[in-house]
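note to self — DONT lose this again. spent like an hour looking for the file last time. sequence + predicted structure for the chain T wanted, 284 res
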Amino acid sequence: MKTIIYLFCICTILIACNNKNDSVFASMPPELDSLLDEYIANYPNNKIYYMIFETRCGKQFFTLQCSSDCYDSNFMDGCFMKKGKIIVFWSINKSWKDSLLHIPQEELCFDSLTRYTDLSKVDVDYDAPYNPQTYRILSLSQYRKSNTSDWSFPNPACDSNVIQSSVLNKIVNDYININDSPNIVYLRFNHVNGEYFVSVGQDYVYDSDSFSGMFYRNGRIVVLYSIDKIENLEIIDKQSLLPIHAINDYKSLKRKFPRFPEKEYKIIWDHGVGSFDFLENKIW
């Protein structure tokens, strides 16, 4: 009888320990856990792995990627350990992350990142992700590798709302279509030495400090920065702009522009025909 009780106690202890070790794995659907295991096995020499969730074109996605020794604390909702690797997770915008990940507070391991480089605290313009692999989420337990058509809107950007210049409208529409409808497209205005400029770029956060308004271009988000810099130029229909809370699904972060490559144009007012032209500027 004593032997049975002893064995029962040992089994209970082992089960408890096993449950603790598997608690993270039980905090996500097994199908997602298997994909993460497979990704780590394919790229075993990295220290930090990412799970990035987002909604795009009305569809749900997550991306797995990795890094040898750096992370960005501005872009993380949490992190946990799995097979000796640090898994950082975050959402670009409102997504299914909270339905897929249920990491207990005691399993979060922010202290484990202190030995690595935090890109938000060093002077680095951009750190390209390693080996990104994106999956479309079909249900909470079903995923498949994404393809080009998953990211595409039903129709190309072609409207001319808000922007009162046919030339600038074409620049914006072409940028959206060529870059496959980025999360956020922005127009950033500037006034330098008596001349006016506009930059067209993309991002997955917005800068609330210089935010002037936003609008939708055939379903895509376009954010305008520093319209006050061109207050004498009638390029934008300011009455049609949406306020900042229209974009609060995304993270707000003060940006040092440009964070990613952008196109820059000098704004030319043609008095003869009463219209604007936009010359691509390589120097500014």
